[in-house]
Automatic annotation (TrEMBL), chains A, B:
Protein name: NADH:ubiquinone reductase (non-electrogenic)
E.C. number(s) listed in UniProt: 1.6.5.9
Species this protein is from: Janibacter alittae
Class of this enzyme: oxidoreductase
Organism domain of life: Bacteria
Keyword terms, alphabetized: FAD, Flavoprotein, Membrane, NAD, Oxidoreductase, Transit peptide, Transmembrane, Transmembrane helix
Length: 460, 460
């Protein structure tokens, strides 16, 4: 397959739900496809929190993209961070370490997703990691388990308290699931493992500026979820806005205007999303408008105004209030692919994109979830089983599905966690080091002090 | 349990085979035990190469130490890097980030293992990672799979060749297993996944200064192993000494005195071990002698001359030519624990430590291994099955054993790899960045440029 094969060349940016399902739809069709992604894997984001809390390995939720698409001979997968889309020239420029690649396209599907939003306070990121990537999840895994380790040997009661206080910001499904799992760790899993601390004394606080947890699930499920969380040991603090974050704590302004500080070392930011910067890049070169969260007001057929060859799908779009969930990306990716194929076959009058809401689910803790499908709401153990089943079947990749199921059996039946390992890079990663100051771990603050000298010597 | 419980207090340094099996032997006995380790996990080193080559997750081979010992109420596990052993005062000083702990002991078992040895050329470490820790294995995983990714988009034929040339230094079991697996990746697993490169064209070179692979296995098995490796596609280059290593290659001096350079980006160092620096620290304060590899000439009963309260076990010792293998550490750890218990019961005349050789095994590739147990040597598929069984049963931890078995079924029956994910920190980790120069990935060369500014602003 070469760039000059003469076939229509579709470039897809992103290997999440949108990009992958577009590629699968185009696989083995009469087009050439190049999928460019910053990572080598397709990430199943809904289960990231389980990587962070030691239930799953990263491989379980992130099969390798070129493995999934290996048999689609017309699809080429390349690793690259997209630096520029040239709408006029119809090219995409990407880099991978010090390699630069320019990929021309006939049609473009931009499925670059969303990152964490700190609502303009980007300096929060250093102290309160988000939950959008494997890197985030593994960093949080190191911090969460590492906090208990450090608390065990701490001789400073204040620091110990800070280490044993966990704050999750954002009471959507991700935040609820994280808070529930950390509470379960503290109350059950780690109960017998320490001698100087009682992990059960850890505080897990879930904050949100809204008056409800899971606000999109409706009042009944929202209240049920809150009660489950509190039963689980999570302190739910609503109408609480985060005003600042630093190494040692988080500052909160409550609904009544009062301000307070929570002293805590581990903060998880699950509060907002911002569309990929590629959205703004497209807005600069076309007439498409971008909203405050960086998402694009695309046409009814998911294209950029004036540029029917450019589709945008998934978390990057703002269309008819459709929610930024996996199903939007999957359906959008497929729709864009079908549109392209239809055009090549001469089909006209493509129907506008219509999102089909397949429901929402969130799990609170072992054996407890809330689910809303159409008009049917249900909770408890049955909802939890349904949650497991839906997510298992929604995952792409057979082997990681089996491995996930096994890890769930280990965790939920055995009450154990198989995936707690962190590397030094993760436990004492740059953010943690910055938290505690470079003097805290001198050998790692200057990574490979021998190496640093080498660099200087080689440079001189 | 407190330091002043009045019971005999045993401190164990290290959570590898030696430390863990000593702790298990002392568990629920009438002593207090504190196990101090730099990592939170017990590492099953023989399978590290499978984490590096995408077969296993890190959780599969590294169960959490305090989880394994959770039910031994007299055993306390603490995370700490031992900075100092004060033989006179009988204390161990350790640090964990910015926390310092001083632990007094009545008996001490030093089981701190060994690190990679570069035979005095420590600057090799930056370019040729070893295989002694989870960090190493995940870094290598990122490099190995990342090399194929980068080769796919490389427009420089020389760089592509360097990316597709892999060199493993050291033809002991670790090196043989790594080389075999990388060859299998290139020849089989990745075969269908790329469009611009043919992974099968990758070169995998196994180097050793000795004239045989697996020199300790005897000539017959050694020759068999070499033939298997070559059939697998590995180029075996013996009597080849490494004289220098840099970003782009490795310099070799052959047996005939000739010198050459192999251009290669990914180098794995599996060639030598050096006893923990704690050995030298003990040598400074006692009469124990240390050999060139940093190992201690302990007494027949594994104690330090003149200090019967200090035991040294496993890779740290040089005793009667016993090999630095897992069984030595396991048997030594148990022996030391039993000695301590025996003394407390008033038993005298402890028999000297005698190592029982349970045989050696090494796997070459799927369905092919060599095994030597006593006088019985066998090879091929049966040896491979035996290798799997022995390693599976030798692992500590039930759940990770099940998970490992599942991952083996996925890999060996399914011909797939479930655990290929690397984080940015791993693929573009400090060593990789240093390899290609900080300009290669500007956003990561200054980790979190926002953060760096913050640090400066906070400091000013």
């Amino acid at each position: 397959m070469s760039a000059n094969s003469g076939k229509h060349h579709v470039v897809i940016i992103g290997s999440g739900f949108g990009g992958l399902f577009a590629a699968k739809e185009l696989g083995n069709e009469d087009v050439d496809v190049t999928l460019i992604s910053r990572t080598s894997h397709h990430l199943f984001q809904p289960l990231l929190y389980q990587v962070a809390t030691g239930i799953l390995s990263e491989g379980d939720i992130a099969p390798t993209t070129r493995d999934i698409l290996g048999r689609q001979r017309n699809v080429r997968v390349i690793l690259g961070d997209v630096q520029h889309i040239d709408v006029e020239a119809r090219t995409v420029s990407s880099t991978s370490l010090n390699q630069h690649t320019v990929t021309p396209y006939d049609s473009l599907i931009v499925a670059a997703g969303a990152g964490q939003s700190y609502f303009g306070n980007n300096h929060f990121a250093r102290f309160a990691p988000g939950m959008k990537s494997i890197d985030d999840a593994l960093e949080l895994r190191g911090r969460i388990f590492g906090s208990f380790e450090l608390a065990e040997t701490s001789t400073d009661p204040e620091q110990r308290r800070r280490l044993l206080t966990f704050v999750v910001v954002g009471a959507g499904p991700t935040g609820v699931e994280m808070a529930g799992q950390i509470a379960e760790l503290a109350q059950r899993t780690l109960a017998h493992e320490f001698r100087h601390i009682d992990p059960g004394e850890a505080r897990v606080i879930l904050l949100d500026g809204a008056p409800k947890v899971l606000p999109t699930f409706g009042d009944r499920l929202s209240d049920k979820a809150r009660r489950s969380l509190e039963k689980q040991g999570v302190e739910v603090q609503l109408e609480a806005m985060v005003t600042d974050v630093d190494q040692y704590g988080i500052q909160v302004k409550d609904g009544d205007g009062g301000r307070r500080t929570i002293e805590t070392m581990t903060k998880v930011w699950a509060a907002g999303v911002a569309g990929s910067p590629l959205g703004a890049m497209l807005a600069e070169q076309t007439d498409v408008e971008v909203d405050r969260a960086g998402r694009l007001h695309v046409e009814d057929d998911l294209t950029v105004p004036g540029h029917p060859e450019i589709f945008v799908v998934g978390d990057m779009i703002n269309l008819k209030g459709y929610p930024g969930v996996a199903q939007l990306a999957i359906q959008g990716g497929r729709y864009a692919a079908k549109s392209i194929l239809g055009r090549l076959e001469g089909t006209t009058d493509q129907a506008p994109f219509r999102y089909r809401d397949k429901g929402s689910m969130a799990t609170i803790s072992k054996y407890s979830a809330v689910a809303s499908i159409g008009r049917i709401n249900f909770t408890g153990f049955l909802a939890w089983l349904a949650w497991l089943a839906v997510h298992l079947m929604a995952m792409v990749g057979f082997k990681n599905r089996i491995s996930t199921l096994l890890n769930w059996i280990i965790t939920f039946v055995g009450d154990n966690r198989n995936e707690r390992v962190s590397t030094f890079q993760q436990v004492f990663a740059r953010t943690a080091m910055q938290d505690l100051g470079p003097s805290a771990y001198p050998n790692l603050a200057d990574p490979g002090s021998d190496g640093e000298d080498e660099l200087e010597r080689n440079a001189s």
